[in-house]
Amino acid sequence: MFVGDDWAEAHHDVELMDSTGRRLAKARLPEGVAGMARLHAMVAEQLGDRADEAEVIVGIETDRGPWVTALIAAGYRVYAVNPLQAARYRERLAVSGAKSDAADAHMLADMVRTDAHQLRAVAGDSAQAEAVKVVTRMHKTLIWERTRHLLRLRHALRDYFPAALATFDDLAAPEALELLAKASDPAAAAKLTIGQITTVLRRAHRRGDLSERAARIQAGLRTEHLRQPTEVAAAYAASVRALVSVLGTLDAQVGALQQEVSAHFGRHPAAEIILSQPGLGPVLGARVLAEFGDDPHRYASAKARKNYAGTSPVTRASGRKKVVTARFVRNDRLIDALVAQAAYAIRWSPGARAYYDKQRAREVDYNAALRQVANRLVGILHGCLKSGTLYDEMTAWPNHAEVRAA
Questions:
Q1: How many whole angstroms separate alpha carbon 36 and alpha carbon 89?
Q2: Where in the sequence is the domain holding 22, given as residue range(s)?
Q3: Contact at 8 Å (CB) between 38 and 137?
Q4: Which chain regions cross the lipid bilayer (predicted)?
Q5: How far apart are CA 265 and CA 220, in angstroms?
Q6: Can you say whether the dihedral through the CA atoms of 65, 38, 80, 107 is positive or negative?
Q7: The domain that contains 81 carries what CATH number?
Q8: What's the sign of the alpha-carbon dihedral 276, 280, 282, 284?
């Protein structure tokens, strides 16, 4: 039996279909326990005596949440259909552009009936891997939010207090945030004393000649610059104080979540193998584990893992024309972690560095060369996870003389 599930926050439009494409039943079910119970009842009613031996295949445009977890727990085979795939399939069925929730449920049921072999089933990741995913994704989200707020702070200072922008090379530094909170408008900043600035630097655990550094900051904040009217500057100052307060909270929560990431990741059985890879520490390693998952049957080969990672190139060939490009439809969180790993790996792994230099010698640009290193590292990680062995430099890069020499 095939089930199409068009989900929304409060309800699900579902359709049950047999192997010939005939509609067996359809309904709008509420989200939650009541809706899941009704779905089970609908399936049981249609299957009758065959309930124990029949397979129920579900198509739905998400791979997470309690509803999906309940479907998997019930023994259904669930396919998380990419919304882009669903949109293209919808065009196959109707060129008029008509769309409704019930029609989408029919389309999803028909899609898993005819094209299940082209779709990816929801991975059977362990609860440990799911926990790592939850904390790592929120940790990364808060880091992205902190970056956005720092850019907003930078834009505000540029508009009314460019001297502060020139004074602080790193706006995220604790002393910069504390001084901006203490004296957010140019007039108040110009009144800061050497002693006040030195105290702030000491609280930020700065070392060296603090008096000299405080004098440089004081001189920078007193530098003449084009000013806004007093009322406008006061409004900007209030905005900056609000941004600094938010950044302080984000910094604290990023630090707290980083400890959670390390704790959850450290308890996972694959942590030792992942940490043995060059360029992966507790945070990056946790992100890689979270986005790849730990279902041992999810990736049939290293190539399948590379394709999912988005590190392997895409080839478009027609007639005499052949173009090889990077993948742009990919898991952004995963590719971000893998490219960061590659950037660290070329500094610490002789084999990775030799491979990177080889790409650069072929006039491949920096980003493309890093992506190719990341692609190789994904294959190495796949082999280590499949065999249950730790990373070994000589085994990973056997064809590079630099590795043998090292």
A1: 27
A2: 2-118
A3: no
A4: none
A5: 44
A6: negative
A7: 3.30.420.40
A8: negative
Span 179-207, pLDDT tens digits: 999 999 999 999 999 999 999 999 999 98
Same domain for 193 and 224, yes or no, is yes
Distance CA 70, CA 6 (A): 16
CA nearest to 59, candidates 116, 9, 21:
116
Residue 319 amino acid letter = G
Domain presence at residue 341: yes
CA–CA separation, 157 and 271 (whole Å):
43
Distances 290 to 14, 64, 116, 131 between C-alpha atoms, Å: 30, 13, 25, 8
Say how far apart CA 171 and CA 152 lie, in whole Å.
11
Tens of pLDDT, residues 287-322: 999 999 999 888 989 999 999 998 988 777 777 777
Phi-psi region of 312 (alpha: psi -120 to 50; beta: other; left: phi over 0): beta
- List the Cα angle 289/286/119 in 5-degree steps: 25
**Cα distance between residue 259 and residue 392, in whole Å:** 28
The residue type of 199 is T
Using left for φ > 0, alpha for ψ between -120 and 50, and beta otherwise, residue 205 falls in left
Q: How far apart are CA 381 and CA 396, in angstroms?
A: 9
Residue closest to 266 by CA, chosen among 243, 297, 289: 289
DSSP state of 324: E
pTM, two decimal places: 0.84
